[in-house]
Write a structure and sequence with these properties.
The complex is a heterodimer of chains A (189) and B (591).
Chain A (H helix, E strand, L loop, with lengths): L4 E4 L7 E4 L2 E3 L21 E5 H6 L2 H4 L2 H8 L3 E5 L9 H7 L5 E6 L6 H11 L6 E6 L6 H7 L3 E2 L7 H5 L18 H4 L1
Parallel strand pairs in A: 3-4, 4-5, 5-6, 6-7, 7-8
Antiparallel strand pairs in A: 1-2, 1-8
Chain B lengths: L5 H22 L5 H9 L3 E3 L4 E6 L4 E3 H13 L4 E4 L4 E7 L4 H10 L16 E2 L14 H11 L14 E4 L13 E7 L5 E7 L11 E8 L3 H15 L10 H8 L1 H17 L10 H8 L15 H7 L6 H14 E3 L5 E6 L11 E3 H14 L3 E4 L5 E7 L3 H9 L15 E2 L14 H10 L3 H7 L4 E4 L13 E8 L2 E8 L11 E2 L4 E2 L3 H15 L6 H8 L2 H9 L6 H10 L14
Parallel strand pairs in B: 6-7, 7-8, 16-17, 17-18
Antiparallel strand pairs in B: 1-2, 2-5, 3-14, 4-5, 4-13, 8-9, 9-10, 11-12, 12-15, 14-15, 18-19, 19-20, 19-21
Helix pairs in contact in B: 1-2, 1-4, 3-12, 5-9, 6-8, 7-8, 14-16, 16-18
The chains are: A alpha/beta (189), B alpha+beta (591).
């Protein structure tokens, strides 16, 4: 189920709750039809498609005008499954840097930390500058960690209290290791 | 020892506030138990058989008198008058109420202590040599590196939800006193001919269901580069460690599956990116950071003193020692003191292994207060916790040893059994732990009672006996010369014996000798094993040396000789299955 609001926490600004413009598509159609572009949902104009699907149906290769047009309009992003080895697909991700306004990284369950490394790699290795959105089983108590490894948007599980969520980001005024947002306090001391 | 500055103190205070809020959300029902569990575990709070257990970190085993007094207060005020020191240099309180934990953590924070990452699937408390900084065989004092890595790993965001727990051990002496190769990462420190501090890293060691010794994957890494290298290593583990099966989720399984060479190659490949990118070079430690930490590990105000051998000391005190005291004191000097880097000083081990009257590693509120006083009086107000669950006064003047012995004797802390059969390691077992298949403490007590004769124990000499109440191996039975493992079959408690385990520079994993025994058979079985050793040993040969020379057969025959072979079929069928993955449901709160 989609959360109608997301937390946006840009690197250079405070966290705020904003409307959710991006629908996450799981790669399956309601009718269970095989994967193809016609299954893309149209409920929202902007869609995050599974990276795996993009890789297989890469519109640049497949001349798929519908997806390509939408991508060119900035309406298509991709999301990475927790077990996606993004380093194996560097060329596609490098090409995506000019095309996707947003990428997502998925948490199948809140205690699965693989997407923390995915976000860190996107920032470190791919120099991904645009939004990285946490999706899936995203809970209040993961936000701080996510914000530090490279996430700057969070679609929380719909039952999570966004007021409580917003209070998580400034719980700590000091850190003892570098993060995407700041060097460790020890270097600034 | 290390003193918090405003950064450390702020971080710990804010962590207390964060946990307080999490507890409040749990209590008001907005945070479900299933989702609270990893949060409380990452703050050392387990739900045990009777109550919550709080595990408090004693980083690399170093403790001040003031801190120990606070632990004593907590044991009296929030627990039942005692605490349990663990093999990984933590202390556990067994009777804690959830509602009280924020208050306890606030009290701990006032003395620069916490329970951060003492549990959960994250980087755990870093352990080291209990004799760091004073051991005569030390190459390099590991404590500054321990502290730097403690800080680096504290609340590390990327590694907050690893596939499983992750344990570091760091050693800087000739003898390994950290069971380095049984850790997820073992770091061996040394200096090269230019005096530069370098690290060798072993990865993929561990005990549990699949005991494996770590493999050397990196040599001669300059200490400054540890953060970037460890980031690479943990990133490979975080991404590729198994998450489909809790029992195959430790890094040892990944290292084994890939092979140590391939694992090392993947880490190296990741590290090249991290380390070569100029923007990331600031991940590594700086000389200023070293200085900030290392200045706290300078030598205390030692006096210049003459050095004495133990026999010279006894000679000197000939007139002072009461004849009744003599044998106890002489044995204590022999077993419970260690040589020191500095002339005229010794390190003293206070035994937390009384014979059958308290659980191994337990100290009462009164003992904790008394030990704090002893450390103030005799050892610059500092203490250490050992892997074997005893306490150390590291800097005692040799001329004070008799006074210390007399003072400590009043608290029942001078049993001269360090390194002997009754200095056994045991987990809390089925009396407390929800994971345990069987009780550990009654077995430990029964063995200590059976071997209560100090003359005999001293004749037997060095031998290690380690007891775990389940295959999670908190009692480190795999590395005991004799290991005892509690197993469950059809609701009954059974005990499997392993032989040949060893810690130290010849670390080895013990091998199962055969079908398991009933609890009441264990003292007799241990007696048979010991008798076999006594019968077959060559002069001055230790138990493990005799075992290595002869192999398991004579010990095995002796152990099963008196068994009427009743339940033969049952026990043999059981042997194969008792360490299966199905032994416990995966929902159990893993340690």
């Amino acid at each position: 189920m989609m959360n109608q609001q997301v937390i946006s926490y840009p690197k250079d600004g405070p966290p705020t709750v904003i409307p959710n413009e991006w629908q996450v598509w799981d790669g399956q159609s309601d009718e269970g039809a095989p994967l193809n572009t016609s299954n893309l949902p149209h409920g929202r104009s902007k869609v995050l498609v599974p990276f795996d699907w993009w890789r297989i149906h890469n519109p640049a290769h497949h001349q798929n005008t519908d997806v390509r047009e939408r991508a060119n309009k900035g309406e298509i992003g991709v999301w990475f499954a927790a077990d996606e080895d993004i380093l194996k697909h560097s060329a596609i991700i490098e090409a995506g840097k000019t095309l996707w306004p947003v990428v997502g990284a998925h948490f199948p369950i809140f205690r699965d930390g693989r997407s923390f490394s995915t976000a860190a790699l996107l920032r470190d290795r791919f120099s991904w500058e645009k939004q990285i959105r946490a999706i899936g089983d995203v809970l209040i108590d993961q936000l701080l960690q996510g914000a530090r490894v490279g996430f700057d948007a969070f679609e929380l599980r719909p039952d999570q209290n966004l007021d409580v969520a917003l209070k998580q980001f400034d719980l700590f005024s000091v850190t003892t290791q570098n993060s995407w947002r700041a060097k460790r306090s020890l270097l600034e001391a | 020892m290390y003193k918090y500055d405003h950064i450390d103190q702020t971080l710990v205070n804010q962590r207390v506030a964060q946990f307080k809020d999490q507890v409040e959300r749990r209590l008001n029902g907005t945070l479900a138990e299933e989702e609270f569990r990893p949060l409380r575990l990452q703050n050392g709070l387990y739900h045990q058989r009777h109550a919550y257990m709080l595990r408090v970190a004693i980083p690399y085993g170093l403790l001040s008198a003031k801190q120990l007094r606070t632990l004593a207060v907590i044991s009296g005020k929030y627990d039942r008058g005692y605490g349990h020191f663990t093999t990984r240099q933590n202390i556990q309180f067994n009777w804690i109420e959830l509602e009280q934990t924020p208050k306890i953590l606030a009290e701990l924070a006032k003395v620069q202590m916490h329970a951060i990452q003492t549990s959960g699937n994250c980087i755990r408390n870093i352990t080291s040599d209990a004799f760091a900084g004073v051991a005569a065989d030390e190459y390099i004092d590991p404590r500054p590196v321990c502290e730097l890595l403690r800080q680096w790993s504290t609340l590390h965001p990327e590694f907050a939800h690893l596939p499983r727990k992750f344990k570091f051990a760091i050693n800087g002496a000739k003898e390994d006193r950290t069971v380095l190769q049984c850790h997820d990462v073992g770091i061996e420190l040394k200096k090269n001919t230019n005096g530069e501090l370098l690290a060798n890293l072993y990865a993929g060691g561990g005990m549990g269901r699949t005991p494996i010794l770590g493999s050397l994957i990196k040599q001669d890494l300059p200490w400054q580069l540890l953060p970037s290298y460890l980031t690479a290593l943990l990133r490979v583990y975080n991404r590729f460690g198994r998450r489909d099966n809790l029992y195959k989720a430790r890094i040892k399984i990944l290292v084994k599956a890939l092979g140590p060479e391939e694992f090392a190659r993947q880490v190296e490949s990741e590290w090249e990116h991290l380390h070569s990118q100029s923007k990331n070079s600031s991940d590594n430690f700086t000389p200023a950071e070293w200085e900030r930490v290392a200045k706290h590990f300078t030598k205390p105000a030692y006096k210049q003193l003459p050095s004495f051998s133990n026999s010279e000391l006894v000679q000197q005190w000939q007139a002072d020692i009461d004849p009744n005291e003599r044998i106890g004191f002489v044995r204590w000097l022999e077993r419970n003191t260690r040589s020191h880097q500095l002339s005229g000083y010794a390190s003293v081990i206070l035994s937390l292994k009384p014979h059958g009257t308290a659980a191994p590693g337990d100290a009462t509120t009164a003992q904790m207060n008394a030990i704090a006083d002893l450390s103030d009086q005799f050892s610059f107000g500092e203490l250490r916790v050992t892997h074997e669950q005893n306490l150390v006064l590291a800097d005692v003047q040799q001329s004070e040893l008799l006074n210390l012995w007399r003072a400590a004797k009043k608290q029942n802390l001078v049993l001269p059994n360090i390194g002997l059969l009754t200095d056994l390691i045991a987990c809390p077992g089925g009396d407390f732990c929800s994971l345990a298949n069987a009780k550990s403490l009654p077995i430990a007590a029964a063995i200590q009672e059976r071997f209560d004769d100090l003359d005999y124990l001293h004749d037997l000499g060095d031998i290690s006996l380690n007891i775990s109440g389940c295959i999670n191996s908190c009692g480190h039975h795999h590395v005991g010369n004799i290991g005892v493992l509690g197993v469950d079959k059809d609701g009954e408690e059974w005990y499997q014996i392993t032989l040949g385990g060893e810690q130290g520079n010849n670390t080895a994993i013990g091998k199962v000798i055969g079908p398991a025994f009933y609890a009441n058979e264990i003292p007799a079985v241990i007696t048979s094993l010991i008798n076999t050793y006594v019968e077959k040993r060559w002069a001055d040969e230790s138990f493990i040396q005799t075992y290595r020379r002869l192999g398991p057969t004579p010990f095995k025959e002796a152990a099963y000789f008196h068994q009427g072979r009743r339940n033969k079929d049952k026990t043999e069928a059981f042997e194969a299955s008792d360490i299966s993955d199905a032994a416990k449901p995966v929902t159990a709160e893993l340690i």
